[in-house]
Design goal:
- The chain is α+β, with helices and mostly antiparallel strands and about 325 residues long.
- Helices cover about 40% and strands about 20% of the residues.
- It has a 5-stranded mixed sheet with strand order 3-2-1-5-8, covered by helices on one side. Strands 4-10-9-6-7 form a 5-stranded mixed sheet.
- Strand 2 and strand 3 form a beta hairpin.
- Helix 6 packs across helix 8.
- The structure holds dinuclear copper ion.
């Protein structure tokens, strides 16, 4: 026997590896880091196994039928096969799935939490406000941080169009609908950095509307809230002057400076975020400069104007100052 016939063909092995690799990662329901995602993952594997068994039965039946040649069943047997295989069996399977699915829902919808986070979905970013017990509201943007083991109530709104809030590794998706308030309960279980996305087409930069979700240990989360709730500690630099002269403060807030705009994301601690531009660019002075100068190209359709007219030196000073807001 030739060696290459001894095992499964290589392309099958490669295919299996690629398929399984797609099951893990920071944005996968099948690599859960939250209770709701664990239920989704369990349900997926149960349904996949069930579907595989049923597929084998159906294919087995058709192979068997082809071996029988032109012999036919009598009417009584044919009627029984159709009744049991075509009506009773699917009814039992589907009813079982429905009951199983409904049983999971109250658990995932339980109200009340240790932490309430208001998320307003906008074209094309996330305005985030933390309401933690014993603290004043803390405004941030494009990131969701939460403590492992806690229960987080996410309250969703939208001022413009329908968006959908989805962090696959932690829970399912919930729409943010203009004129309504929707809710989602998150029960993150495993510390780590995950990726969320807008899951409803909301305009030209829908695919560029992502977010970072970081699940932290409760101690680290409390320390982070202390930091995030405080004012910025800006370095006095030429960049701050550029920020003020270019009028950035009309749309952005940097607490601790005169900038108090609310049209765009709060930039008080933008330098400490994992990414910029709502999860799409690495957080570095170079990328911030690119975003500021070419906002319309980096994210088509956003409200922010592009500042191509800024001299290169001013642009880099501004970007360096922003990156230093930790
Ligand atoms: Cu917001 Cu798609």
């Amino acid at each position: 026997m030739r060696a290459d016939l001894a095992g499964p063909p290589r392309f099958l092995l490669l295919g299996a590896c690629l398929v399984l690799a797609g099951c893990s990662g920071p944005q996968s329901s099948l690599d859960p880091a939250g209770e709701a995602a664990e239920r989704v993952s369990e349900l997926f594997w149960q349904m996949l196994t069930g579907a595989a068994v049923i597929w084998c039965i159906v294919i087995g039946a058709s192979v068997l039928a082809s071996y029988r040649g032109s012999r036919t069943w009598d009417d009584r047997t044919a009627f029984r096969v159709i009744l049991w295989g075509g009506a009773v069996f699917p009814t039992i399977v589907l009813a079982g799935l429905l009951v199983h699915g409904l049983r999971l829902m109250p658990e995932l919808r339980a109200a009340g939490g240790d932490l309430r986070i208001e998320v307003e979905a906008r074209q094309f970013w996330w305005h985030v406000t933390y309401h933690a017990e014993g603290r004043p509201p803390i405004v941030s943007a494009n990131e969701l941080r939460m403590p492992a083991g806690g229960i987080v109530e996410v309250v969703l709104t939208s001022p413009d169009v329908i968006h959908s809030f989805w962090i696959p590794a932690i829970a399912g998706k919930t729409d943010a609908i203009p004129g309504r308030t929707t809710r989602q309960m998150l029960k993150p279980t495993r510390p780590g950095i995950y990726r969320g996305a807008c899951a409803e087409f909301c305009g030209s930069s829908h695919a560029l509307m992502a977010m970072t979700a970081e699940v932290m240990t409760p101690e680290r989360f409390e320390a982070w809230l202390d930091e995030e709730g405080g004012p910025a500690k800006p370095q006095a630099s030429a960049g701050e002057q550029v920020f003020q002269q270019a009028g950035c403060g009309a749309c952005h807030t940097v607490r601790g400076t005169p900038a108090n705009g609310t049209v765009g994301p709060d930039l008080t601690h933008v330098g400490s975020r994992h990414a910029i531009g709502a999860g799409i660019l690495p957080n570095s002075p170079e990328e911030i400069a690119r975003f500021v100068a070419h906002a319309d190209e980096v994210k088509p359709g956003i409200d922010m104007p592009s500042y191509r007219m800024l001299p290169e030196q001013d642009l880099m000073a501004l970007a360096t100052w922003l990156a230093g807001l930790e």
